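step: validate -> pass
step: tokenize input -> pass
step: predict -> running
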Amino acid sequence: MSPPKVSEVEVSLTSTKAKDSSERLKALLKTQFQLDVPELDFGIYRIMNYRRREIEEFIERHLLQTVEKEFERYRTLSSKELLEKIEEKQKEIERLEKQLGQKILRNGDIEKFRDSPLVKEYLDLKNRLDKAEITENVKNQVFNDLYNFFSRYYEDGDFVSKRRYSSKQHRYAVPYNGEEVKFHWTNFDQHYVKTSEVFKDYEFRLNGWRIMFRTIIVNVPARNVKEERRYFVVHSEKPISVDKENKTCIIQFEYRPLNDGDLKRCGIRAKPGEEEKISVKQEKFNEILQEEILKRVSDTQLKTALSARENEKTALEKHLYRFTRRVTNDFFIHKNLKAFLERELDYFIKTEIVDLDNLEPIHVTRAKVVEGIGKKIIEFLAQIEEFQNKLWEKKKFVIKTAYVITTDLIPLEFHKEILDNKEQLEEWKDLGFGDVKKDDLIQKRLPIDTKHFSENFEERLLEKLGDKGSLDDLVDGILIKSDNFHALRLLQEKYKEEVKCIYIDPPYNTGSDEFIYKDNYQHSSWLSMMAERLALAKELMRKDGAIFVSIDNHELANLQEVMEEEYGRQNLVGIFAVQSNPRGRYLEKHIATSHEYLLLYSKSSSDLQLKGEALSEKHLDEYKFQDKYGKYRLLGLRKRGAYSRREDRPNLHFPIFFDPKTSRISLEKEKESMVRILPKLEDGSDGVWRWSKEKIKKDIHLLVTRKVKHRYDVFQKDYLTEEKTLKPRTVWFDKSLNYERGKEALKDLFGYSPYDYPKPVALVEKVVSISAEKDSLILDFLAGSGTTAHAIMNLNKKDYGKRKFVLVEMADYLDTIILPRLKKLFYSLNWKEGKPQGADGISQIIKYQHLEQYEDALHNIEFLNEVKGQRVLQLLRDNEQVSEYFMKYFLQYETEGSPSLLNIKQFENPFEYKLKIISSGKGEEVVNVDLAETFNYLIGLKINKYKFLKENGRKYIFVFGERGNRRIAVVWRATKDIDLKNDENVIDEAINDYSPDEIFVNGDAHVKNYKVTEIEFKALMGA
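step: predict -> pass
step: emit ->
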């Protein structure tokens, strides 16, 4: 076979390059469209897998066809314009030929006239027409352009604003609107999502076995490298426990950086000093995990089940892959991906493809094609991101509501049922209350938890409590188990501008705490998490509200910047230094950190009023003197001015001694008392003075010898009063504020401390006491072990206050630590080694709730309109229209009516609205949504009372409350086969005494002027 000609080789190489470029682009798009992990069947992966075939069809076929069409369209437009211009020049040349009587355009003759301006223009147009023909090389450039553009913003599942690397050396510009100072970070335009997954267990069933993966976060970095990546590693001490009888298997993992031993098992050896440069994918390490786990499993049946192959992977390998990806993926959601990518695409085209130095038609056409194709891809990527954004931002359902109420507040008629409840009695024993007798229910504050009782019991109890007064006024605290973003979103209407004090202790982002950040975005991730939550919290604050945030030096500067972005620099009240560890923590290379910071911001500095701190014993010693008005201290000689009379300022008096105008001494007795003080100053018997002894002696001497210089000279006396206080100092060294005190409090309650660094109760007491009145509302949306609630209960007990709290915690700590802690405190505020030292507790009612989470919202997406979607596809005329449908509309259209997005049909029986919950980490649980409580939050209802009826075989729930100055009634009942006339009579009779201004009823009704609950629900939920 003869060798191909050079031109054939070039064409072949060009075609190969074009094919390689298109394949590379297609591979990238499959990753960006979440199609590279077909094994994953949760979250957005499950949704994308639903339309996998159609999306792959678009990438494999329609995308290439679209490129060809775009080229053809722009080539045709360019060629048509050039041909028109060429025809015009031809006519001009023909007219010139007639004048000259000679052919110009004939072959051979045209060379004679090449230098003629008219011929030059003609030949230039012809040359441009030839170049307008699209070559394979240009197509290859387009595929490379698209790949280079989309890959530069995509990293490990997210679109991030990475640094631009431009041939023109252009860099990012910070979005700037004329501010004096602008604070900016990489992920500022994205939601931080991964706040709960790392705490969640993973559970699956296999051949009758229940298998659970559990995670333990190791606090000590393996090689003391601050920002190194973490991995799942089989737990070193308790890797696997198997219960053959119950067929359960628990596999425990550590989540930590890899050490040298881990790397060796991967076949990797790092050079000394270069350990931090090593990068291993978790998927690679999963192979090691599988081997280690199977070696440790002795049960043959279990090992066989785990080793069974499903396609290319074993069952164990498949679940390891899903488990580890749940933590390491889906870290951010862009708030407006379409606008971001379109802005960046415009920049890319103008700087990388065509600019003032490169205006050749072929490059203009190339730029137009890149723009056209790029925008189509952006449409689809944006559809996916906007769908996730919608699920993230929508307000979440309440999926569980229960109450904890001390028995002294419960009517006697319920006591027998309480004593007959074995679960409740068992819980009391576990909490350390011992065997409970009948009289204990009255004489002691025993906390009952309504989760142990029937629905009927709880409803009857709520009705009775509502007779005593407004239920919301009776409730002392709210606990919410949820990602704090979702909780704060749901609280917006109910508690808008109601919170007096916010205290939070966020993760310090030291690299060893439980804040799991994306590689290379440690600070940016932390800032995105904090900024959004601080902004939401601000909306809940009163005008005179204050927010305190604990932090250490790792994020102090960033925290201050982001808080000034949200609250304004003028609203920085102060930064407190709190000695948290007198011995010092050896986290830094050169110093031992012994203090932390407490940032205090107000919503409005002009409205803020802080209460002073009580005088210390040292300050009290200054009040050594006494007259008929009481104890006082001397402040020194002062010029007399306004408000000098005692009746004007009784606590700070200026007695007059000498008036030079009349040359008379006023108030001779006061002068004599000054003279009596002199000997005390001389012998030093009184050692505490506001000013030095010498200054006081000099002032008195001037008075006595009548050598004063001022027209009116007075001596200032500061009288001691019961409410005498000092402004809060910015340095707090009290021993009660040390971390050890926080651990001791937990040890006293539980016999051990489940936290390494819990905040001390005294710190939160101090924060609340200087910022919140006795009847105010306090919020902590990073509740941890529940120290804030503990502190508020202590303060209320001390000063008979009625402070209320709202606590939010997303981890299981709410159920395992906070609730037991509060129940113990209700019974007694004094514990030692897990045992109550008496029964001196506090009467309380708290409500605790669980919310649907983002992963639940994703899990409950259903393609209810699949048939309609197929019909739409049948009606579309060509591939371009099909692509348009998938690019823009299919997710929104085909998932409408999913339980996550409000299924109106389920409102037919609002007490049976179902959601499949996976956020608990216990596998999939089907639960009933609490639509009534969810709606109460959505409309911002202050609940006064409930009424529960059963009429005509149908259950009714009536919620009576207030919104603003209007009285509201909300009615819930099943509507299937309902007799609307009878229904109207039931509702009218139930609400008649309340005389509501507004009535909400679900479904159809004959009630006058009622509002349809579903319409309001959907609008307010953002679904």
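step: describe -> The CA atoms of residues 401 and 819 lie 13 Å apart.
step: cleanup -> pass
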